[in-house]
Amino acid sequence: MTRLIIFLAAMTTVFMADAETFSYRFNATPLPNAVQKIMEDHPDLEVNFIYDELENYKTSAIVKTDNPYEALRQTIGLNPVTIVKSRDVYYIEALQHGKYVYTGRAIGSDNEPVVAATVMLLAPKDSTVLTYGITDNAGCFSIPCDRKGVIAKLSCLGYKTTYKNFESFNVGSILMPEQAIELGQVTVEADNSYLYSDKSVYLPTSRQKNASQTAQDLIMRMAIPQLRIGNEIKTITGQPVDIFIDFVPASAADLEGMRMADVKRIEYYDFPTDPRFQGKPHVINFLLQKYEYGGYVKGVYYDNFVMSRQLTGFAKVQYKKMTFDWGGGAFGMDSKNNYENSVEAFRLPQPDGSIKEFERNSTVDYSKLIRRDYWTSFKALYKSDKTTLSNMISVDIDRSPKQVTEGRLTYTPEDFESTEFSSLSRNKVKSIIYNGYWYFGLPNGNSITFNPQYAFTQTNQFSSYQEKTTETILNGAKDNSHQASGDLSFVHSFGKVGTLKAMLQGRFLQNRTSYSGSSTLSQIRLLLPDLVRA
């Protein structure tokens, strides 16, 4: 035990020494917050902010250096901000100041954000450059200025230079049409797949998306080589694959209700290290187009014109960091061909030690099956850079109010009298299910994930069977089931060295079942709460 403690202390010392290196990955992080993060990790680094305008800028920089000045320079990126070192103090100052702030968003013809576009604010009289700004990963800009009624000049490689009069401070979305660039004698070959060290990325074409109704349809048409598509999506070796949408676990309703036009790319991972994938060995992650606000409605209808039909509907509403999903559907089946003739072989020992063999033949003359299934679900999702909160409630009612089978029984050899039989069964299953996914990204490579789940299911079944020469056999069963679980995991990343994961799991299960009819029985099965640590 002493050796283990010494080893862990030595490893902690190594990691603390390595933490002196400036290594960060920011994603649309406000610039003051990013600098503050560096200062918290390096208390010896002294930085002064000169103006409050810094909060208008965001950074998505990847910082990897041992030099403090270079670390701050990489963090600032293309933002109009200067950094000056005087003795051992670093002074960070916004190049422009003003009592007004112009905000907006640059987008292309495909409604995609124009990233790293230069936005210059010009004086109306002589087009003098007053100040400027750079759009972030979402195409947004926020530029302080002391003047009203300025002219904006937006420019970016691959887009036409665009001018717009700013008559208000919130100018909304500005369209920048794409501009074709004439190339020299260069041969360009299109490719819709890219292979990285930790993942494979596939870009669906417009034709593939237009021809697909669900996520499974799209994967099948893209013919991803690592996957085998059948009733379920599995790896080529038959291993199960977990599916995520924007790093959030996806339900069957999410995959069916997905709007195909929003799919930007599909990522496939083997044994990913990202804690948001919860340690799953094989993962598909759909990355969708993000909107500030908006939504859509989608409906799907199936009809085989013989015995079944299905109608499903989905609606999505997104407002900033909140997304609300609703789904609902109905399934109906009326079948008169849902039966099979059967032959049963019997071998009965006789008193004299011999074996008597005969066959019991069931021939169906008439059958009818009616089934109705209704379901609805609602999900609320909050997603920010470091926090994801997903909560979904679904309700399902599955009824088979009538299943009738009638036919004849014959025996070979004819040692028993032929007769007629009839059977009737009906059942109803009602359930309400809650699924939660809570992810919290913490400083210094730490994260916490919690998956709470609860399900209540009520099942009612009844059946009767009668042969013409025997009494009716009745069977009934009623079951109430409660299931609850909670999975809590903590992950710490050591960078290239590896990750440490600690898990705490709890389970609760209760079944109360009663039988009626020709025989009566009541049974309770209870699995007390338990904790599993890993």
Lay out the secondary structure:
Blueprint: H1 2-18, E1 22-25, E2 29-30, H2 31-41, E3 46-49, E4 58-59, E5 62-65, H3 68-76, E6 81-86, E7 89-94, E8 100-107, E9 118-122, E10 129-134, E11 140-145, E12 150-156, E13 159-166, E14 170-175, E15 193-195, E16 200-202, H4 206-210, H5 215-222, E17 227-229, E18 233-235, E19 242-245, E20 248-249, H6 252-257, E21 263-270, E22 282-288, E23 293-303, E24 308-319, E25 322-335, E26 342-349, E27 355-383, E28 387-412, E29 419-442, E30 446-467, E31 473-493, E32 499-517, E33 521-533
Classify the helix fraction into a percent range.
10-25%
Q: Which consecutive residue ranges, at least 5 long each, have pLDDT under 50?
A: 1-20, 529-534
Radius of gyration (CA) equals 33 Å
The oligomeric state is single chain
Relative strand content? over 45%
Structural class: mainly beta
As for the number of domains, it is: 4
Calculate the mean pLDDT score and round it: 83
Tell me about the largest β-sheet: 11 strands, antiparallel
Span of the ends, CA to CA: 19 Å
Apparent shape: elongated
Number of helices: 6
Question: Care to count the β-strands?
Answer: 33
What does this protein structure show overall?
It is a single chain. The model is unreliable at 1-20 and 529-534 (pLDDT under 50). Strand 9 (118-122) and strand 10 form a beta hairpin. By secondary structure, the protein is mostly beta strands. The strands form eight sheets. Strands 23, 24, 25, 26, 27, 28, 29, 30, 31, 32 and 33 form an eleven-stranded antiparallel sheet that branches. Strands 15-16-21-22-19-20 form a six-stranded mixed sheet, with no helix packed on it. The chain has helices spanning 2-18, 31-41, 68-76, 206-210, 215-222, 252-257; strands spanning 22-25, 29-30, 46-49, 58-59, 62-65, 81-86, 89-94, 100-107, 118-122, 129-134, 140-145, 150-156, 159-166, 170-175, 193-195, 200-202, 227-229, 233-235, 242-245, 248-249, 263-270, 282-288, 293-303, 308-319, 322-335, 342-349, 355-383, 387-412, 419-442, 446-467, 473-493, 499-517, 521-533. The longest helix has 17 residues, at 2-18. The two termini are 19 Å apart. The chain folds into four domains: 20-94, Phage tail protein beta-alpha-beta fold (3-Layer(bab) Sandwich), CATH 3.55.50.30; 100-175, Carboxypeptidase-like, regulatory domain (Immunoglobulin-like); 193-288, Ferric Hydroxamate Uptake Protein, Chain A, domain 1, CATH 2.170.130; 294-533, no CATH class.
